[in-house]
Amino acid sequence: MLHQYNEKQVQIIIVAERLFAEHGFNGASVRDIAHGASVNIAMISYYFGSKEKLLEAIFAYRIGTTTIQLEHLLAQKEISTLNKIYIMIDHYIEKMQNNTHFFKIMLSEQIKDQENKGLIEIIFNSKKKNFDLISALIAEGQKTGQFKKHIDISLLVSTLVGATNQMYIGQQYYKRLNQLEDMPDDKFQALFKKRMKLYLKNMFNAILTYEL
Amino acid sequence: MLHQYNEKQVQIIIVAERLFAEHGFNGASVRDIAHGASVNIAMISYYFGSKEKLLEAIFAYRIGTTTIQLEHLLAQKEISTLNKIYIMIDHYIEKMQNNTHFFKIMLSEQIKDQENKGLIEIIFNSKKKNFDLISALIAEGQKTGQFKKHIDISLLVSTLVGATNQMYIGQQYYKRLNQLEDMPDDKFQALFKKRMKLYLKNMFNAILTYEL
Amino acid sequence: MLHQYNEKQVQIIIVAERLFAEHGFNGASVRDIAHGASVNIAMISYYFGSKEKLLEAIFAYRIGTTTIQLEHLLAQKEISTLNKIYIMIDHYIEKMQNNTHFFKIMLSEQIKDQENKGLIEIIFNSKKKNFDLISALIAEGQKTGQFKKHIDISLLVSTLVGATNQMYIGQQYYKRLNQLEDMPDDKFQALFKKRMKLYLKNMFNAILTYEL
Amino acid sequence: MLHQYNEKQVQIIIVAERLFAEHGFNGASVRDIAHGASVNIAMISYYFGSKEKLLEAIFAYRIGTTTIQLEHLLAQKEISTLNKIYIMIDHYIEKMQNNTHFFKIMLSEQIKDQENKGLIEIIFNSKKKNFDLISALIAEGQKTGQFKKHIDISLLVSTLVGATNQMYIGQQYYKRLNQLEDMPDDKFQALFKKRMKLYLKNMFNAILTYEL
DNA sequence: AATGAATGAGTTTTCATTCAT
DNA sequence: TATGAATGAAAACTCATTCAT
Description:
The structure is a homotetramer.
Chain A: H1 7-23, H2 30-36, H3 42-48, H4 51-63, H5 67-75, H6 81-98, H7 100-111, H8 117-143, H9 153-169, H10 171-177, H11 185-209
The structure holds a DNA duplex.
């Protein structure tokens, strides 16, 4: 299951991830990836079999390491359910920021009509894990009466994922629409992240607790 | 401003839109588009100049016709502000469903590092319109005290757009996660749309009115 | 023999001549020519039959009008043979300067392996006329003892044509090699022409009169 | 500086040189060149980067090896200045005959409005070398009083180059104008070369020594 | 007589992959 | 194990010409 990639393979994966994110899967050429990773062109076929398999390798490399730590975090008893939601939001945003490239690829691949069956399964399993994790969390909150009944978990997850992605993708537009173009980029990033977190927490609080 | 495309040009645009959505911009070849539209390959250069320009034409074709009707709808006096929000949500979902391909392309192009400056402007202008429209709406609700203060419009729009997109994109996963695989597709679609609309309306109600 | 070209045809010929000279026959496209002449693309095939025929038309247009005036000039009795040579040189240089484009095309077409049989004949006839004209002139000079015997007329003509062409083509190199780059272009042109004429006259004088 | 081309690259260069000479740069297709050199089409991009770069490679390949031997020849002390001029003429004609294709390309590229800046420099440097070499030679002759004063070296070189090129290019016309069409081609070639050499030597003798 | 639309064959270049070593 | 060389297929685009009107 857990592939062990050697140094050069990881090098290739990192570069490929960036180029796939920046130009799309078809827009990034094996040549460019090889050049970016300072390896011979033939190495990509040699190591991964094909360009498609390289994409899968990226998923295998990134997805393996993710959910576990969150699981542990959420298992802790002394934290309130709502705080766990907040932690999850923070966690998601941080993870997205640290894996921008991968998040973009993941989104891109979901948009397309996926010819690649392998990826569909990988993505489904990842979603399933999130779904189960959050289901448990919501159930916990509902049992204590903190959260309202009848919450569509799938749509709730889509809300978190979709809203966050969209915010992140639309960062530059946010800058312009809110006249923050003069702010230096690192300052803006910090401000933006703060606002996102606050906004999403308020939103989830509202969604989960406010009954019409 | 408003390009008038002839029958064959529209034919090409429709096919290109579908193929760009299904395979990405670089994944769809001019050859395939020409074949799909039953025109000679050279016609695409002849009519649009280049593949990139064809993409821009798709945007020009789709974006021109959109916001106007919504503007009129929201201008009506006898509808309550909250209902206008609901109308907007319905409108967005319907529009998305009727323009799936275009929505996917739009999202795809936002994900990539946009080399195409023309598109960035087109997308920005579209976002600006939505932003202004919703800003006015929210302000209206705030003035009457229905909506809470301090709402980040940009993030709110991102929430609508992102959540809806993500739901729509993840439809097939939704089906599997909620054990609806046996339901015929048209029935599922109807059910899904109903749930989305309901969910989003509740969500927006909560977001806009619930003060911590 | 003498085609009569209408206004639009002449327009096309002028533009084609320039573009063929600047980019070569294959480097200049019918599209560019049509655009440059502000006519419909189809007009070129319509008027001339094909791109190749257009090239022939340029030759027909340019060659028809040339030698006659020189013939008259050289027929005059009161001018000395050597002065006639000088007149011919001046005439050739002026003609070249006023028909740069055509001269370039003519040279270009001679360089290539000529697939176009029509052109070969046209060029041959033009050469034949020059040959005959100069033969008569030289014979005249030889009869009076002014010119030396045994002059290879073909090579002599090649010398005039080739040297002048080469000088003209290499103008910019001349400028740089002789450190005249700061001189304004019109001044340089005048100087260059003056030098060419003087040089060639001296040269021909030497060639024709100096016996080892 | 001096590129080292491998066997296949040289193969391509030789074929490209011929085809560029015969049909012009734009008239010769990469496909034809590849076919002529019995290599895969992609190899041309692979080896040279592009068609234009291939043209530059031809220049690099041909120009590197030329002037050196002439320099040595002219450096010899025991040969009279005039004889050096004769040697130079013989040398130039032989070189032209052995590099017909390249000479044609060189001329072609000078005729066109050169978009290719690289080539301009290459050609200029080559001209500069010839210019310097001949300048020294002429100065030598002038010092001994053999040659007349005030000789425009640039125009003199143009005369040699232009006249010789023009003669060579107009070979077939020469044949017809001098009724030598029945002579077998190899015999004609030999005769023609002999006549050219003799003619040019006489001409240069006259030009350099005959003062009006 | 004149032309906008259309076309098939052509262009150069790049692609992901495989081969020979 | 690793790689420079090589390749066939495909890419987007342009070509000169013709068609329908």
